[in-house]
UniProtKB/TrEMBL annotation:
Coiled coil: none annotated. It comes from Geodermatophilus amargosae. The lineage of its organism: Bacteria, Bacillati, Actinomycetota, Actinomycetes, Geodermatophilales. It holds the Pfam family AP_endonuc_2. This is Inosose dehydratase. Residues 33-305 form the Xylose isomerase-like TIM barrel domain. It comes from the Bacteria.
Length: 324
């Protein structure tokens, strides 16, 4: 996509099961789809082990030999580079960290989480990426609500990692999650206040904000100086009553509909009944000459190739973004 905004596409929607997105030919097919849809830059999502071999830095390098070897792999599909990597340090499935379960809200875990960040920082710098996009805190249902002191603990961890990314010439963007323990707008602003604006930014996800009850357009207009990264997608639903606090919300809400028979929460741009004001949000980005990456994603929303084509169509026909 050629535009005043910089567009990238997220690969996370392809990797829906451990046995689906493993072979290099499957990955090439996805990359070629993204490229054919007009995107020459991608965002990676962290994973674990050989079953997620396009996600974990150490495994990518083992497969492709070097940073340049991986970039050559991308270029075979006419994808020129990596904008960013998404990383959730709370994920309990990282075999590289011994399957340890840690939380940014626990001061005793801070040193280990900072150490865990180093391979992602090194890899992202090595492939010429720009933003380490992170889930700042775990799910709300797993712990008591955070008070201001708890939010400060979380902020301190990200300030330390922000120093690492800044030293490597990278940005750090905290990604709001509709299931996260930092959930309300007040809590999110509190977390931003607890972090250094020189080294820690915000990744604004339009669908996650909307599900969580935060207006992404209004929030961006008020806090544009802190927004350094964008995930652009739509949703047809909002949390109707603290469903994010349901035990096992990752399944009971996002995969089970919280009793409302919602098959999926995340949708392509322009979906019928979409709650996100996509055109208004993109207009706000343009008004502020937003310099970061706008990453289009659907996040396990359905057939990935179909969704990539629908998103490309919307950008071209509704937002006037030239394909090339």
């Amino acid at each position: 996509m050629r535009d005043t905004l910089r567009w990238a596409y997220a690969l996370n929607q392809w990797n829906v099961r451990l046995d689906v997105f493993v072979r290099h030919e499957e990955q090439q097919r996805a990359l070629k789809t993204v490229s054919a849809c007009g995107f020459d830059t991608i965002e990676l999502a962290s994973g674990t082990g050989r079953w997620d071999n396009i996600s974990r830095p150490e495994v990518i390098l083992a497969n492709h030999g070097s940073h340049e070897g991986f970039l050559d792999f991308l270029r075979r599909a006419k994808v020129q580079g990596v904008s960013s990597i998404f990383w959730d340090p709370q994920a309990p499935t990282e075999e590289e960290e011994g399957y340890a379960f840690r939380s940014t809200a626990n001061p005793g875990d801070s040193d280990a989480i900072v150490e865990w960040a180093e391979p992602f920082v090194d890899f992202l710098a090595g492939v010429g990426g720009e933003q380490l996009v992170v889930r700042p805190v775990g799910s709300a249902w797993m712990s008591p609500p955070l008070d201001p002191d708890g939010i400060k603990v979380v902020g301190d961890v990200w300030n330390r990692i922000g120093e690492l990314t800044s030293a490597a010439g990278l940005g750090l963007a905290l990604h709001y999650d509709c299931l996260g323990a930092v959930h309300t707008q007040e809590e999110l602003v509190g977390l931003l206040d607890a972090t250094d604006p020189a080294t820690v930014g915000l990744a604004l996800d339009t669908a996650e904000f909307t599900i969580g009850g935060i207006d992404p357009v209004a929030f961006y207009r008020e806090h544009a100086d802190r927004v350094t990264h964008v995930h652009l997608k739509d949703t047809r639903y909002a949390d109707a009553g603290e469903e994010y606090r349901m035990p096992g919300a990752e399944s009971t809400m996002l995969k089970g509909g919280a009793g409302r028979r919602i098959e999926r929460w995340f949708y392509e741009l322009g979906t019928e009944g979409g709650l996100v004001d996509v055109t208004g949000f993109v207009a706000a980005l343009r008004e502020r000459d937003f310099p970061g990456w706008v990453v289009v994603e659907s996040d396990h929303g359905g057939n990935p190739a179909e969704l990539a084509m629908l998103n490309s169509w919307y950008l071209q026909r509704e937002l006037g973004v030239p394909k090339s």
